[in-house]
Amino acid sequence: MDNQRTLLFAALAFVSVLIWQAWQKDYVLPQETPVVANADGTIAQPKDVPEATLDNKLNGAEAVELNEVRTSSRGQVINVTTDVYALEINTLGAGISQLQLLQYPEEKGKEAVIQLLNGEAPKVFVVESGLISQSGDSPNHHALWTAKQNNYTLTDDTLHVPLTWQNGKGLTVTKTYVFTRGGYKVDVETRMDNNQANSWSAREYLQIKRNAFEEKKANSFIYTYTGGVLYTDEEKYQKIDFDDMQDEDLKVQSIGGWAGMIQHYFGVAWVPEKENQYNYYTKSLDDGTYVIGAYSPSKTIQPGESKTINSILFAGPKLQDQLVATAPGLELMVDYGKLTIIAEPIFWLLSFFYDFVGNWGVAIIMVTFSIKALFFKLSEKSYKSMANMKIVQPRIVALKERYGDDKQKLNQAMMELYKTEKINPLGGCLPILIQIPVFISLYWTLLESVELRQAPFALWIDNLSAADPYFILPVIYGITMFFQQRLNPAPVDPMQKKMMQMLPIMFTGFFAFFPAGLVLYWIVNNLLTIAQQTVIMKRIESGQEK
User: Fold this and answer.
1) Is there a contact between 304 and 196 (Cβ–Cβ < 8 Å)?
2) Cβ 474 vs Cβ 520: under 8 Å
3) Residue 438 falls inside a structural domain
């Protein structure tokens, strides 16, 4: 077996999977969610509030119609500005309806920044929270709250933004958002003061609502996951996509954990109190939006008593240091897929080199050298096998001419040749197969790490996460692949030989759409491979090695 062919066909299969994923996202139409109408023709109220019961028994995400009359159709907008956020909190519901990431422009060099949360169609992505009580006398995310001022700006290390709801009977609820300088973690404190004559019971719910819009990507050829995610102590990290939510409502109980929605580079998650058991749920709503969230056990507050519930909202770029510091397992929002166990050490190594050199492109080159050094001995065995195969290639061609179409005699003669020359044609396959998961993990590391988003390298490459605008790197890659092929034995079969000759051209075309950081890795890897193979080939030809 030709070892290089094994690697190239594996790479071609991997690229083919990427193309299929991109095609699926672009051309397979999603199912439409039907719109439900009332008997009079008006649109029914979306059932987006968890059912309220006094016990802690899980009743799923079934919703109830809202009984209270809305006093405002929009509420009052509270503007909040920090060093990383520009956001709006609407007093109707006290949820964040708009949120911009001030340090992340949509396109490199442009002023427009990423708007992560948005309450207006066609791109709906909001966070909601509230209290639910069987009595109905509670502030859910459709209730009207009040605020002391319309504008808040971070001037110290923290900023508190309180909103208040009162029922007019002595019950007061204060929801306070606490923002921290440089952080994408928002502490949410819900204080309940019961000055009524009777006890009052309620529970908190935290949820994220989003429709299935696709965010704008710098490279539409690349597929990344968009949808719900859930982390519990029992099941750990799970993806719950929009189709799953439409097929079945999630009903899970867990102590601690978190629920979120992620997209490429960015994510939003609610982290409830870790010491209490929460009910996690999903819901597909009639208006085409999807909900994932959690609600707490019922809390009873006696007359004259106060209680506070503390939760955490994470909304922003999936920076791994901040995710790790926020909650256990939250770093898994960085979607490395099934090879996370390999990808995480690769990212650590990439960050380690970046801390020294201050350039992600140079860090990629240094990681490539490190991976090459790690697999040096395995690669050496593979390259020796290919070098020996190349030396006996003329004799294999002669055998093919001698035996013609007699496959049985040809195979027997070739096996005898391998035995005489002490060549194992399969000897180099295992080392290559072992390296393939590492290559794939590195691909996902470079693709998913927001730290590399819009990162410059050198010269014309000012964005490692986007394709080379002048296609210079893909052409260089094609050239290195061509020279690498010249060092290996050509296939005996003419058809296979033609296919192998076309591969550099095909991969040049594929890599024209890949992020420049990925192409840079493959160029450096090819150059190191050429150098290693050349040295081994010369040693074998001179008789120094066998």
Assistant:
1) no
2) no
3) yes
Chain Cα centroid distance, residue 252: 23
Q: Are strands 85-90 and 77-81 parallel, antiparallel or unpaired?
A: antiparallel
Q: Within this chain, do residues 291 and 353 fall inside the same structural domain, yes or no? A: no
Contact 492, 414 (CB under 8 A): no
350 neighbors 357 (Cβ within 8 angstroms):
no
Distance between CA atoms of 315 and 101, rounded to whole angstroms?
9
Closest C-alpha among 66, 188, 59 to residue 127: 188
386 - beta bridge partners? none
Enclosing domain of residue 178: 33-65+137-149+157-335
Question: Is 130 a domain residue?
Answer: no
Query: What φ, ψ does residue 308 adopt, rounded to 5°?
Result: -125, 135
Does 427 map to a domain? yes
Q: How many residues does the chain have?
A: 546
CB contact set of 158 (below 8 Å; sequence gap of 6+):
178, 179, 180, 181
Taking each helix axis from N to C terminus, what angle separates 376-391 and 429-448, rounded to the nearest 10 degrees?
Answer: 130
Residue 281 domain-assigned (yes or no)? yes
Averages of pLDDT over each 10 residues, the chain, 546 residues: 46 51 40 35 45 45 33 74 94 92 87 90 90 82 92 94 92 95 95 90 92 69 84 89 89 90 94 89 90 91 92 95 93 88 91 92 92 76 66 72 71 73 61 74 86 88 86 90 72 66 81 85 87 74 58
Rounded Cα gap, residues 481 and 172, in angstroms: 69
Cis peptide before 122 (omega within 30 of 0): yes
Give the per-residue SS3 of 356-385.
HHCCHHHHHHHHHHHHHHHCHHHHHHHHHH
Query: In this structure, are 307 and 369 located in the same domain?
Result: no
Angstrom distance (rounded) from CA 527 to CA 532: 9
Same-domain status, 374 and 515? yes
The pLDDT, as a whole number, for residue 290 is 93
Cα-based torsion angle of the residue sequence 106, 329, 442, 497 in order, rounded to the nearest 10 degrees: -100
**Where residue 266 sits, what CATH number does that domain have?**
2.70.98.90
